[in-house]
Specification:
Length: 543
């Protein structure tokens, strides 16, 4: 902690106060419309006494209404009376703290009298051991009772700050073990006072300094907050070095997390490198990232940014970063009615659908050939009622007669033939019974193809021999043996007229009619002729 004597010198207080009033320092009137900050509690060391309390609202207004939640001061360490809290300015700070439950009162408490007297290490060792043995317990009991009586029992007590350095008599390096015992004894004594709610903040310097600060840590049961004082000075050349160096900012955060403690930055600000806005920017970013319980900048020269006018660039960065964004007045957005533009109704032109006439394709009239149905006279032949004898059918082998290929005769259109009426002759029964004729297996071999092949059946004893010249249209039907009847005496019949054969390739078609053996002998050979007349222009005739 640099130049701590300034905090307590009354002559310096008077000089600073007179200077501020004479030069018209930029201290604005308090702003009642403060902005409540929900992040880390913000504060500044403005002065140890009543002037420090009085400047808080002006700092708040300079920062655009940001609430200054932390009031920070120091007890004088020159005599034990000051360490016991027998100073009047405690009442001013207690009054400020009680005015708002959201406020926090931070009080730095020395562990030894003559704290800034440059006491040598050998004497420091004796003082530490005396404290560890309880020699100074009464001083800290009286301090606890004083704070409780002032109505600030929840004061954050930064006890023996920067103990890892060489500045103060309450330093740790001369005897770390007894120093830790001494810390524990003070905490135990103060916590024993009824009504207290103190929080003890262990706050070393950043970096190793005279000793690694973790070697002075008194234990989790006697520490509530782990803080760190960090000014813009060595060790380290830039802010990145301040983060990564041994016992630096990163070590501080990691150590507190490992011990499940909140962190704080009771002192920070500019120093050896002058007006350094980059340091201020990076430190504020670090604070926003790690969210300490509170932080307070040391605001006097050369460290400060409000009361110290020699750091204008850093002042601008600090102010811009901490000034809350105050929303402007809510200007209602005028509701401009959207004009209703009528959609023009464009009539759809009625396009007549063209009527395409279906072409009438004439159906060709194909003349249906009129085929005359020939009228075939049905002969009226009386059917004699003859009993059918039960004659055994001889097993006659069916000869394999090849079917001759009958050429289609080219029939020319013949003249119509009038069939001659057949007059049956009277049959006179004969008393003689003919002997049944055994059918002969002899099958006549046709010489020329006949239009009709006789069906195989029971051969008659007399098979008509086809004429080799003119094929007969009538084939001989098989004769079925009749019953034994008297043999009639045949009367010679007149020769029957033979039907005239149509010429070849004629349009008249004659079909022979077979009436059986004995009836054919009576009526003769008959045929039915059909004439197909398709006209002279008809070019197709299949025969």
């Amino acid at each position: 902690m640099p130049t701590p004597r300034r905090r307590l010198a009354s002559t310096c207080v008077g000089t600073v106060t007179a200077g501020l009033l004479a030069t018209g320092a930029a201290l604005a009137a308090p702003d009642e419309n403060r902005t409540v900050d929900s992040g880390p509690a913000v504060g500044a060391y403005l002065h140890y006494g009543p002037d420090g309390v009085a400047r808080i609202p002006y700092l708040s207004r300079w920062l655009g209404g940001r609430e200054i939640r932390v009031g920070h001061t120091y007890l004088p360490g020159d005599q034990w009376a000051g360490i016991e809290g027998r100073v009047s300015f405690l009442e001013d700070w207690a009054r400020w703290r009680r005015a708002d439950d959201d406020r926090m009162f931070v009080l730095n408490v020395p562990m030894q009298a003559r704290n800034e007297a440059r006491v040598p290490d050998q004497q420091v060792v004796r003082l530490i051991r005396a404290g560890a043995q309880g020699k100074y317990d009464e001083h800290f009991r009286r301090l606890a009772e004083r704070l409780v009586s002032l109505g600030v029992p929840d004061t954050v007590i930064v006890l023996g700050w920067e103990m890892n350095g060489v500045t103060y008599t309450h330093r740790c390096r001369p005897d770390p073990a007894n120093w830790k015992l001494y810390w524990r004894r003070i905490v135990t004594v103060m916590r024993a006072v009824p009504g207290q709610k103190f929080k003890f903040d262990f706050a070393p310097n950043r970096g190793t300094d005279a000793i690694g600060w973790t070697k002075c840590y008194p234990g989790d049961d006697y520490v509530d907050i782990i803080g760190m004082d960090s000014y813009d000075q060595g060790p380290g050349q830039d802010f990145d070095d301040q983060i990564s160096q041994p016992y630096g900012l990163q070590k501080h955060v990691d150590f507190a997390r490992a011990h499940r403690k909140a962190i704080s930055y009771p002192e920070w600000g500019l120093f050896r490198r002058g007006d350094n806005p980059e340091y201020v920017r990076r430190m504020l970013q670090w604070i926003a990232q790690h969210k300490p319980l509170y932080h307070t900048i040391t605001d006097y020269c050369p460290h400060g940014v409000w009361q110290c006018k020699q750091n204008p660039e850093s002042t601008k960065v600090f102010r811009d970063a901490l000034t809350p964004e105050v929303p402007g007045p809510v200007v209602p957005t005028p509701v401009v009615p959207t004009p209703v533009v009528p959609t023009p109704v464009v009539p759809t032109p009625a396009v007549p659908t063209p009527v395409v006439p279906t072409p009438a394709v004439p159906t060709p009239q194909v003349p249906t050939p009129q085929v005359p149905t020939p009228e075939v006279p049905t002969p009226q032949v009386p059917t004699p009622e003859v009993p059918t004898p039960q004659v055994p059918t001889p097993q006659v082998p069916t000869p394999q007669v090849p079917t001759p290929a009958v050429p289609t005769p080219q029939v020319t259109e013949p003249a119509p033939v009038e069939p001659s009426p057949v007059v049956p002759s009277p049959v006179v029964p004969s008393p003689e019974v003919p002997t049944p004729v055994t059918p002969s297996p002899l099958v006549p071999t046709p010489v020329d193809p006949s239009p009709e092949v006789p069906e195989p059946g029971t051969p008659s004893p007399e098979v008509p021999k086809p004429s080799p010249v003119t094929p007969s249209p009538v084939a001989t039907a098989p004769v079925t043996p009749g019953p034994v009847v008297p043999k009639p005496t045949p009367t010679p019949a007149e020769p029957l007229p033979q039907p005239q054969q149509p010429p070849l390739n004629s349009r008249q078609w004659c079909v022979p009619i077979n009436f059986g053996g004995w009836l054919s002998e009576l009526v003769g050979k008959q045929s039915v002729c059909i004439k197909i007349d398709l006209g002279d222009d008809f070019g197709f005739w299949p025969f």
